[in-house]
C-alpha cells in the first residue's frame, strides 16, 4: 500500500483583519499546528504531509510553530518525523499509520494464487503430473493412486472435452482419484498410495 502526499493550506481565518499582521499570522499558525496534529492522529493519516502555513517574517516565530507541532505530535503513538519550517512557510511531516488500511482490514490473501495474482496454467499442471507418473510407472507396480491437490488445481484437471485425468488414467493404466485439500498449495500435488495410504510424492520427484 502506497500513501499519497497530502498538502494542507493554512489561511488567515478570523485574524485576517487585525493590524498586527505578524502576531496574527503566528496565532493562526499555532492554532493550525495543533489542529493538524490532532486531525492526523484522529484520522490515522500516514505518508508525507506538507503544511503550507502563513508566511512569518521572524525566525523565532517560525521556530515557535515548529516547536508547537513537535509538542503536539508527542501525543501521537505513531512514528512522526518533522522538518523545520522553510522560508516559504512549508513544514514537511512524515507519519506512519497505526491501523491497517481498509483493504488490508477486510481482505485476505487469495488461497489460489497466494497473493501473486497469477495461477499456473492448466497445461503446465498436466505436464507436471505426467512427468511424475512416468517416473512412478518405471519404478512401481501399483495401479491405483490418490492425488491430493488444491481445489483450483483439481478444477484444472477436470477441464477440457477429454478430461486430463481420464486421459492420464488410460495412458498409464493407473486409477487416479482426486482428493481436494486446501492445505496443498495451488499448482502442487501429493501422490498417495491407495493401498497403504503412504505419501509417495518425494520418492519419484
What's the short version?
By secondary structure, this protein is an alpha/beta fold. It has helices spanning 21-43, 59-73, 102-106, 122-139, 151-157, 164-172; strands at residues 6-9, 47-52, 80-82, 90-95, 144-149, 175-180, 189-193.
What this model shows, in words?
- This protein is α/β, with parallel strands linked by helices and 205 residues long.
- It has 2 domains: 5-106, Translation Initiation Factor IF3; 122-193, Hypothetical Protein Ychn, Chain: A (3-Layer(aba) Sandwich).
- 38% of the residues lie in helices and 18% in strands.
- It contains 6 helices and 7 strands.
- A 4-stranded mixed sheet has the order 1-2-4-3, with helices on one face. Strands 6-5-7 form a 3-stranded mixed sheet.
- Helix 1 links the parallel strand 1 (6-9) and strand 2 (47-52).
- Helix 1 (21-43) runs parallel beside helix 2 and helix 4 packs parallel to helix 6 (164-172).
- The longest helix is centred in the N-terminal third of the chain and has 23 residues, at 21-43.
- The chain is rod-shaped and about 95 Å long.
- It starts with 5 loop residues before the first strand and ends in a 12-residue tail after the last strand.
Amino acid at each position: 500500500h502506497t500513501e499519497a502526499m497530502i498538502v494542507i493550506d493554512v489561511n488567515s481565518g478570523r485574524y485576517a483583519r487585525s493590524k498586527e499582521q505578524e502576531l496574527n499570522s503566528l496565532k493562526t499558525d499555532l492554532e493550525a499546528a495543533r489542529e493538524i496534529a490532532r486531525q492526523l492522529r484522529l484520522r490515522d493519516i500516514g505518508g508525507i504531509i506538507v503544511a503550507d502555513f502563513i508566511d512569518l517574517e521572524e525566525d523565532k516565530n517560525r521556530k515557535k510553530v515548529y516547536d508547537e507541532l513537535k509538542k503536539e505530535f508527542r501525543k501521537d503513538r505513531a512514528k512522526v518525523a518533522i522538518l523545520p519550517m522553510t522560508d516559504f512557510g512549508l513544514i514537511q511531516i512524515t507519519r506512519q499509520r497505526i491501523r491497517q488500511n481498509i483493504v488490508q482490514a477486510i481482505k485476505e490473501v487469495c488461497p489460489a494464487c497466494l497473493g501473486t495474482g497469477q495461477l499456473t496454467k492448466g497445461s503446465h499442471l498436466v505436464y507436471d503430473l505426467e512427468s511424475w507418473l512416468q517416473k512412478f510407472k518405471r519404478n512401481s507396480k501399483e495401479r491405483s493412486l490418490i492425488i491430493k491437490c488444491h481445489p483450483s488445481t483439481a478444477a484444472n484437471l477436470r477441464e477440457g472435452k477429454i478430461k486430463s485425468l481420464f486421459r492420464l488414467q488410460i495412458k498409464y493404466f493407473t486409477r487416479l482419484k482426486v482428493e481436494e485439500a486446501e492445505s496443498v498449495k495451488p499448482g502442487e500435488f501429493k501422490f498417495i498410495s491407495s493401498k497403504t495410504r503412504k505419501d509417495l510424492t518425494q520418492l519419484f520427484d
